[in-house]
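ok so i was messing around last nite and threw this chain in just to see what happens. nothing serious, just curious
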Amino acid sequence: MVSRRDATLNLTALLRHSPGADADVSGEGEFVPPDALLAAGELRLHGPLVWSLQVVNTGGDDDFVVTGEVRGTVLLECRRCLVDVPTAVATSFVYPMRYRAGESIEVRLVDDDGDEDVLEFAQPLADFATLLTQVFAIDQPLTVLCRPDCRGLALDGVNLNEHPDHVPEEREQEKRSPFARLEDIDL
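result:
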């Protein structure tokens, strides 16, 4: 396998229908998704994504199976104190895949007539960057903690992990009863 700095594979060998043609193509590498993909998945990465893929000809003319994994570190906010927490994410996947001639080099996920999604590629040089970014974004955790005993934020916004002795000043409105204004009313 040759390590790559993008997420493309040349699948030409799989499209040859001759005896002795390769039955699989694989690749690995790392890449940083384009800003548009990061924004769409609301991802803040801490370094590149590392990927590996294997595309296997299943014996049909245009039918394949792709297996792969993608891993990396994403920055998420601690749910209690809102500091950035580097969080490792790793995911693997298996998709059926088919060739449909066209112009785009991007591999795209299409809803097949059946119940399963199918990947389609239209050119022998197939770009998996969008798929890898989407699969990675789906598997990131919804919430994280910076540490198990995170104390969070005080009412006035002070991080209690950094200032454990902080006591927030009570506001005048919080001291008084909500019915205090009614005491001056003559009935």
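not much to say yet. The first strand starts at residue 3 and ends at 4.
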